[in-house]
Write a sequence for this structure.
């Protein structure tokens, strides 16, 4: 995050009165909210318009509390109503209604994002899309579903057709729209990179305009709507890529030193046929996991989802680099466990076990080498890596001191050749010029997830 964006974020949150938890009953109601709710009930039925306080509070949060920086500033907004459509055809009517009454509207799936993407900074309505979960169609190499369909359901359906998803996030129950609007990568990214690298072939999007007529975009034209937090229109349906199904198994290995483990990780990443996922954790992380015969809590853990016919080759890689294969665990248990411990999930396990940690998303093949200087930037640094053919990524976890030290440390990591994406930020920070241009047309009144597009022209780090 740039200094300008950090300052803007601080001012925005302070302006919302978010440093202390507000009593939502004392907040000034958005003008027109009662009329909006009454008309929304005509579209959805009374059960689709939720005013219950507990439901509104739940819908006003996501997993941004994993950031000690953001959690100190939350909640920054509070839903005055939660809308729960049950079919994508209902969404345009709700957007037209929001436009007519000037009601801010924040979309969400299951709220598993870590950056505050789903927090309604300007109150108003939260659009809960989890009820729009139909799988609509599938064919050779593609599947089409409503935004609220779970990734796990898409994968299961694809399997009945002899296919599988190109990728899915580590939170497997995430919704399709949530993954596209707020996620990035996961299992399958080792080869296919992120969800903006060809995974999406078609989107139907509803704008927040007077008539809210949905439109369809394809291939590269989908980019303004991916990882844009719903600020450029609401994804109602999406078509994503499938590939022929393969028989996967999980390989678990242990290493005693970083150099050997990262060399094995690099070799596994380039194994043919390609793995679906390959992860590496330091022993400090392994010790907070649930005990399992596949883990040695005193050793680094290297895990990979590999094709069944590649087991011998993967074993040879591990042993040639001085590691020990602890277990080869077939599907579904082995691959499912490895997937559930990828990307940001090790951070969750560490924070669940112990207080006082923060994390950063990091990248760069420099992480495969000597990390002595990298680990000196923050106290008690612990590393988790994900092997990718496009370049190593991972998570850095360390003891939290204060906000200033985090951003000073990001600059120091950059100087060491480590790329950093800050999870302590609820701004859209990808393709900003494209997002801004698209939002001007798709949301001329600025009602869609307001406060999530930064005012400046620069992108966050």
């Amino acid at each position: 995050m740039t200094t300008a964006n950090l300052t803007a974020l601080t001012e925005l949150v302070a302006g919302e009165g978010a440093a202390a938890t507000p009593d939502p009953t004392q907040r000034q109601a958005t003008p027109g909210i009662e009329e909006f709710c009454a008309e929304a009930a005509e579209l959805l039925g009374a059960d689709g318009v939720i005013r219950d306080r507990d439901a509104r509070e739940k819908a006003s949060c996501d997993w941004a509390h994993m950031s000690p920086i953001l959690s100190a500033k939350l909640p920054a907004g509070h839903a005055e109503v939660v809308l729960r459509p049950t079919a994508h055809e209902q969404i345009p009517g709700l957007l037209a209604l929001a436009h007519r009454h000037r009601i801010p509207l924040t979309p969400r799936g299951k709220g598993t994002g870590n950056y505050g993407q789903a927090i309604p900074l300007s109150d108003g309505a939260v659009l809960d899309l989890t009820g729009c979960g139909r799988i609509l169609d599938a064919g050779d190499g593609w599947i089409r579903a409503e935004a609220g369909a779970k990734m796990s359901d898409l994968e299961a359906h694809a399997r009945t057709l002899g296919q599988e998803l190109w990728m899915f996030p580590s939170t497997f129950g995430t919704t399709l729209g949530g993954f596209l609007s707020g996620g990035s990568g996961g299992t399958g990214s080792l080869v296919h990179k992120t969800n903006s690298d060809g995974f999406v072939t078609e989107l139907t999007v509803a704008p927040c305009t007077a008539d809210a007529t949905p439109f369809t975009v394809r291939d590269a034209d989908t980019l303004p709507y991916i990882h844009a937090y719903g600020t450029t229109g609401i994804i109602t349906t999406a078509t994503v890529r499938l590939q022929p199904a393969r028989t996967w198994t999980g390989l678990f290995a242990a290493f005693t030193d970083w150099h050997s483990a990262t060399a094995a990780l690099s070799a596994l990443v380039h194994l043919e046929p390609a793995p679906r996922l390959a992860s590496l954790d330091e022993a400090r992380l392994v010790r907070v996991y649930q005990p399992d015969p596949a883990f040695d809590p005193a050793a680094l853990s290297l895990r990979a989802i590999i094709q069944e016919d590649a087991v011998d080759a993967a074993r040879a890689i591990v042993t040639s680099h001085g590691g020990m294969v602890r277990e080869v665990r077939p599907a579904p248990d082995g691959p499912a466990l490895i997937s559930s411990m990828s990307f940001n999930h090790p951070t969750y396990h560490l924070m669940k076990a112990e207080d006082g940690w923060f994390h950063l998303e990091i990248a760069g093949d420099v992480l495969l080498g000597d990390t002595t200087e990298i680990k000196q930037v923050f106290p008690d640094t612990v590393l988790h890596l994900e092997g990718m053919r496009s370049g190593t990524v991972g998570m850095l976890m360390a003891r939290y001191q204060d906000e200033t030290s985090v951003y000073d440390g990001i600059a120091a990591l950059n100087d060491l050749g480590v790329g950093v994406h800050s999870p302590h930020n609820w701004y859209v920070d990808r393709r900003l010029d494209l997002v801004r241009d698209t939002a001007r047309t798709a949301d001329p009144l600025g009602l869609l997830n307001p406060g999530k597009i930064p005012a400046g022209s620069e992108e966050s780090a």
Summary: The longest helix spans residues 3-15. Residues 1-22 have pLDDT under 50 and may be disordered.
